[in-house]
Amino acid sequence: MTQPTPIRRDHLRSALDLAAAGVPVLPLRAGKRPVGNCPACTGNACGGRPNMKVPGPCQCPHPCHGWAAATTDPAVLQSPAWASAWQQAQAVAYHPGGAGLTVVDLDNADAIAWARESLPATRTVPTTRGEHWLYRGAMRSVNGVREGVDLKSTMAYARWLGPGTGTMTDLPEAVRALAVKRPSTVRPARLAFTAATPVGGGECRHRMPAYLERGIAMAEQRITEARSTVHATVYQTFLAVLSAHGRCGCLTDTHIERLFTAAQTKGETARHCTDAWTNALTRLGI
Prior knowledge:
The protein is of the alpha+beta class. The protein has nine helices and ten strands.
């Protein structure tokens, strides 16, 4: 009989030590990627965690949804539902934002040189290609704030590579400023919708300009007025728009561009907008 792959006790031990220190952790498989979702959560079929800004798993007991699986609960980390994840584990990751930290990920020598000239000294951790600079304080995660520089904090994970050296300092405005970008209008690729058979006189009610305009305006307002959980609000708003208009062929690139612009004005990246739109399409089976 084939024996199960043994759990990497060194990874689990490291995870438990970090969790005891208040750092939310999760296992990483080869390629520095989280383990795949369980069957119930495949393709985000479960809808994911309602508030993805809070670290932790969804309602299933498995380590699903990437960074959101990070936990400090030793009972969860050692549970049978997580055993297969530790069997696959090649490394341990942590959720910096959940620990009140921000990681400035410097991916090459030029990025390190820039950081030494531009940012306050803090704790540093060597990586395969560069360094992680750790600051005390959480913020929005943004990739590619400049060449070879990513910011990892909320809604992100970073590989645990050891405690590093140096004294950790408070998150400076110079790092926060890196995440403040001039909102850009990104025109998404044309999306094909499956037209449903019209009902009632052979006309689609959504083609009434006032009806469609009111729906798009309300969606823009909902995104604009979001005070917290902006990412979740954008996804839910996209989902509502597609539920009402996604199958009848009414939406145009102009309508979609308006929604993307509203989201980016609130700080969402073009990639997050595209991911949220795609996830909403998948959720609705469009």
